[in-house]
Amino acid sequence: MDLSRISGHKVIVVACAAGLLASCMHKKYETPIAKNTQQPDKVLFDQATKDIEKGRYETARISLQTLMNTYESSEYLAKAKLAVADSWYREGGANGMAQAEAEYKDFQLFYPNMEESAEAQNRICEIHYKEMDKSDRDITQTRRAEEECRQLLIQYPNSKFAPQATQRLREVQESLAEHEYVVGNYYWKHEMNPAAANRLNGLADQYPLYSKAGEALYEAGDAYSKMGPRYRKQAGEMYDRVVQEYPLSARAKDAKKRLQEMELPVPQPDPAALNREKFEAANYHKPGIMSRSMEWVKGAPDVSHAAKEGAPTMHDMARTIPVSVPASTNADAGSTSGAGSGTTEVSARQVSSSDTTLDRAQDVRSSGAATHAGSTNASAGTSAAAASQPLPTNRDKELKKYREQQLKKQEKLAKKNKKKQPENQNQQNGQPAQVTPASSANAGASAAAASGPNTVPPQQ
Predict the structure, then answer these.
(1) Rounded to the nearest 5°, which phi and psi values hold at 161?
(2) Closest CA to 339 of 382, 284, 293, 290
(3) Among 28, 265, 300, 450, which one has the highest count of C-beta atoms within 10 angstroms of its own C-beta?
(4) Is it the case that residue 448 has pLDDT exceeding 70?
(5) Is residue 223 part of a domain?
(6) How far apart are CA 223 and CA 301, in angstroms?
(7) Domain of residue 54, residue span
(8) Which CATH number goes with the domain that contains 292?
(9) Does the pLDDT of residue 124 top 60, yes or no?
(10) Residue 443, pLDDT score
């Protein structure tokens, strides 16, 4: 055996062992306490997350509150605050939803630049969306849902929640438009034509994506037609919009027929509107029995006909004045404002002592009742005969019925008095009839009136 070779191997082994020992002595320093453990704030957050998933919301909120109070500089602080709001949202109920909305708004106040702020705003929109009532009931929550969904699109237009909020806004506005249509349709059926025309026309202007906008415009045109020839132009405009903007609606053919009867040109359908209605018809999904049953139990509105594309309205509805309301004279402008275009907005300015506008303006009281703008504006296209007709009211049908009843009562009373009056009472008594001259009777009445209330008229 070669001893020199064996000793060489031992030297190599000893050298390797010495190198390994030296390398162990220069290893990076680690904190012994943190070895194989997790940070306590993360432990609290993970435990709270598990509690939320299992429905232990109160326990989860206690853990999250402990995290926020104990570790003020933790990286999980914002997530913990959002998780508190999520726990209230999942718990549900009137109290839970109210607490969730308050927590989400508080999160947006403290962390406005975080991506989760858009999520918080989306949850607020969902809270009011879930609490919406049917269209013929209270619409307070529906209006709140519209406001919050708009706020998300305004503040976070590029967030991943924007498409969902846009569709939610379309569905919310479908419910609001249905509420307006129910009221306007009631007016139309009861022949309250000025109110019906104003309500239905405003509905189509505010919510053009409404599934029954074509029907609303047709009923508005019919109401204008019933208000007399003065409003022939407005009626034609309503029918024109039905044919042009809603060519596939249920009233499109009727609107064409009305235009032909009025000898007005029938427009061609707008290609963009036609394609939009075809898209909506192709993407409509009829709700099933289970879905309708759940809506009935919850009292939620039916938004299955809501539009699937198109930009929703981003402004509130401005109530207009019905066209039958007389327009006041605008002395500064020198002309009358168009009927039906007025709003409830009021402007004012201070009149200086040197301003002679009031002295130069015409006194409305001296000209009697205010006349309608359509009767004074020659460009309105109304004839003198139409302008001379009385303005329509919402009670035309009731007034007509009342006048007929009063006329029948008067005729019946006259016949009754005629029967009670004796044919010849004086002949039965054997005395000639004494007729008092009308002039003598009038003179006596005049003398009694002139003598005053304290004077006793002379007896004959």
Answers:
(1) -90, -5
(2) 382
(3) 300
(4) no
(5) yes
(6) 28
(7) 37-107
(8) 1.25.40
(9) yes
(10) 45
